[in-house]
């Protein structure tokens, strides 16, 4: 199976595409730019969803559901919002089909044109704030802490599975607050929830920061983000949290009677992560043999493969496998015994490597004799023989899973550090981007003009102004104008 | 709060609409026919989803995700399918907006017309079977047992919250099998899963049956269904499971190499339940005071309301409430202590009645003195005083929740039975439908012509041919022609 997987060093992009398809994660559909998320890929997404949902609820949020369609006029109510999204909107103009003249096909019924066209939501601020208007009268109705799991559509010309698709799945939180301070705190809280999820569950180290004016969300005052480094030296934005100020409250006239009885506009936030995280997860850890999954998100954590030549051997191995499974079950460790006789052990080894199952156990007749089990780790492909008389296999598996979770995080952390370079001249800036890639920490004069010129010349954008930015006098690498601290540039997905 | 709720006996329809809004379940949105599912309503739906998802996985199904959009030409591939859905399709024709001449609004960019229009999925058979074509080569690839949680759109002219909306949420299972027998078994299995879910979780008794030709799914060979009786004597279809035969396999050319090496078309099923179940849940059990929820689906199962006049009293009551909550928590019983001082106890009583919280505890200073708690049941509005010295309150609450679940099921079961009438003449048929409503069990000659005429004259349709139909010679109530058994007619939602 994995034999044919392209090598990362030769064609990273092809390696990614092939991996996504061969590991049964997703595939392109017949509908341009839309993907099919296959059962194995979806089961990883479900694990992400479950954990994120738990974290959202723990921080006081409830789920709700708002319409898929947005009346065209709503989009225009917030000026920069419509500017940001108008160019990639799927538009519903009719509500009926009818038979064509041949009677064999269907055509759009010209008599069923909508009075006002509907936009398939690219994001839901407008439809949600138009609803919040009726939900908020007094400060007692605040805060509104609501999240939605949904599909959204942004018409993309160049698409890539998970990373950029016309339709994608996501969650979008939309909150309304009494004060600016509370809304600002919420924005940061959710950025931190995303960062904790990325680091603790995806084993993905991230930089927490704030976007420059050119890169922020259309309609936000400030956009906070988490940025991660992929193995090819390109950055990936893994989640954003927007402080909306009173922009949408003003656009949709959402006011409340404050504690002093005065009418004021509500303060808002919105925040989201999407199936893009699947792309980040795949690209951050996987290798030329296939997926490497953090145990906390692996749909299957342990696989047991019997090495047998007769039914009697298989029966004896099955007994042992059942013991192991019974012991792992109460710990919530998922495990499968693959006793199919239609595939050889070698084929199965490659298959589960491709699928990223963290721990593989192999048991043959000789193992039964010596009371041993061969244990292989997916992350470093190492193998050890565990003597189950001398060692508690269950504990050993549990510890190994924990160690894999830690190790792949540490590996990615070291990689991100290695791929972060401070530069002080334009020549260095260009050279690092060309030859090494990664994050380039450089002084910037703070103007969108410089940012744009750098982007045009190098394709690198400001990924973020890190929240832990050091105050440090310097000169912009491009313009030479004064700067107060370094920002992170990178080429990005 | 509930004071203003209309009475069921006076205006059932208004009672339903008001209840849905006032209990914070859902509301109409600014987009015609689309609803907003509010957090409280959504939390009930989440409980339904979680249980159904568990049942699907237990029966071997995996979740996946397929595109929202369906190319227009796909719909036409199965003749009866397109006929059934063409009249209610939302059609995407353009992929971009641009600024209008005033620069203040946006218009659809005429240069961004799609080559082929896209239909927002009304159901996903076509897009899924076009994908299955690539997933199935040999009998070894079968069965495919896949489910999808998604939003779908059917353009409805007359909409009602949850019962009939242009966009709704649902799950749709789509399976592919090697043999007709297996597909038929799957169809029945999923109908039974729905019936068990309705009866055990929603406390909703259902009739299992098969649809007549006129009422079956567009593209199915047979449609199995579960039908429930609402308090106003109208029936509600609560779930359907379709045996597709080889219809979609033929339309999309999905073939496999069988065990004998011959190429054959795959056998298919599809099955779904939607947010319509919310409507059934509300209408089956609720009363003039508000919602009545089965404990297994109630987002909040127990509420504790303190009766206090001073902070000292509240502090003492809080101590007792905390003890109760700590004892309920390990049993997985959800409980809330509502100690807000901005609302009076009487207001809170009415509010939690409206929201359908199954058990309410009230504790005042005198209760502390006598070691008592007043416990009220939402289903029958009965109150008892529990002496916590003599009785284990935790057990009592647990048993009461179980008893409520049972009681509301039994009540609905008795009601359904009472509302089912066997009739043998056309006069009786008309009279029962007019005066009593409910299911009318009557002989029918088996022709769509008779079925149509009965529908035109009475608005009643054949809800189903019950699976437990007795073989019984009789004469069609309408045509007088021979019949082999009774079918269930009713007016329906």
TrEMBL record, chains A, B:
SMART domains, sorted: ProRS-C_1 (SM00946)
Q: Tell me its EC number(s), please.
A: 6.1.1.15
Q: Name one GO molecular function term.
A: proline-tRNA ligase activity
Which CDD domains does the entry link to?
Answer: ProRS_anticodon_zinc, ProRS_core_arch_euk
Q: Aminoacyl-transfer RNA synthetases class-II family profile domain location, by residue?
A: 27-294
- Its EC top class is ligase
* This protein's domain notes: Consists of three domains: the N-terminal catalytic domain, the anticodon-binding domain and the C-terminal extension.
Asked whether the UniProt record includes Cell membrane among its keywords, one would answer no
Cell compartment(s), UniProt: Cytoplasm
List GO terms (cellular component aspect). aminoacyl-tRNA synthetase multienzyme complex; cytoplasm
Q: Name one GO biological process term.
A: prolyl-tRNA aminoacylation
| InterPro entries recorded | aa-tRNA-synt_IIb, aa-tRNA-synth_II, aa-tRNA-synth_II/BPL/LPL, Anticodon-bd, Anticodon-bd_dom_sf, Pro-tRNA-ligase_IIa_arc-type, Pro-tRNA_ligase_II_C, Pro-tRNA_synth_II
Query: SUPFAM superfamilies in the record, alphabetically?
Result: C-terminal domain of ProRS (SSF64586), Class II aaRS ABD-related (SSF52954), Class II aaRS and biotin synthetases (SSF55681)
This protein is called what? Proline--tRNA ligase
Q: Which PROSITE patterns match?
A: AA_TRNA_LIGASE_II
